[in-house]
Amino acid sequence: MTDFAGNTALVTGAASGIGAAAVRWLARNGAVRLILIDRDEGGLDRLAVECAVTHFVGDVADPALWERVEAEAGPLDCAVLNAGVSSGGPIADLPFEEWRRVLAVNLDGTFLSLRTAMRLLRDGGSAVLTASVSGQKAEPGTAAYGASKAGVIQLAKVAAKEGAARGIRVNAIAPGGVDTPIWDDVPFFQDLVAQHEGDRDAALAAMAGMATPLGRYASADEVAAQIGFLLSGAAATITGAVLVSDGGYSL
User: Fold this and answer.
1) Is 249 a catalytic residue?
2) What are the φ and ψ backbone dihedral angles of 181, each rounded to 5 degrees?
């Protein structure tokens, strides 16, 4: 794919995981300027790409951050709205503060970043929002995360309708398990790592084998390439869609 030549792209949650993989993918495929957003300034600094880079360090749920981005970033050709946090625990035990923490980043933050993207995207631009299969498939212990990602899916669909008159496409990707640092905050996974005597890779493989027909989780690079497809001209007639990338988990 070479249709990102000369493009300016915005990526949130850019310092690690899927976001960092998307940054590398866009740079390899011709983007000339990347607007990167994350709370982790050190992680942003460690990204090595051969194109112009502008960093905004802050919380995606902070409206003041997005005022700065709108004032300074300039026009965009595409956007990857990926920032998110995870959580776990049954509803009966879930503190309201934890519920709000997850919704603030995953839903409020995605709304604010999407609002800015819709204002800055050139006609014919495209955006991909990182949702999750948890936004479509109910599992115990995923109330906050699943509800937030269901909201992300609906945001993508509404934005697709609103952007269509300008040729702007908006889609969502719904990964299942992906080998990223987000798992490290999930209590179930922490317990699994402990059961495997601290071996994170073994714990991840065991978890993937429990419910994923393909028997493995995706890599961040694989998901980034799928995001790239949705952003690209190869997906020119795809908008308002949810690409499920879960190794068969939701079957």
Assistant:
1) no
2) -65, -10
Q: Do both 42 and 158 map to the same domain?
A: yes
Question: Angle CA(77)–CA(82)–CA(85) in degrees, nearest 5?
Answer: 160
pTM: 0.93
* pLDDT exceeds cutoff 60 at 1: no
CB-based contact 26:11 (threshold 8 Å): yes
| Same domain assignment for residues 190 and 172 | no
1 belongs to a structural domain: no
22 domain residue, yes or no: yes
Do residue 85 and residue 131 come from a single domain?
yes
Catalytic residue among 66, 145, 189, 217: 145
Digit-coded pLDDT (tens) for 36-47: 999 999 999 999
Which residue range is the domain that position 134 belongs to?
8-178+220-245
In tens, the pLDDT along 173-193 reads: 999 988 887 788 778 889 999
Cα dihedral sign, 179-154-232-77 = negative
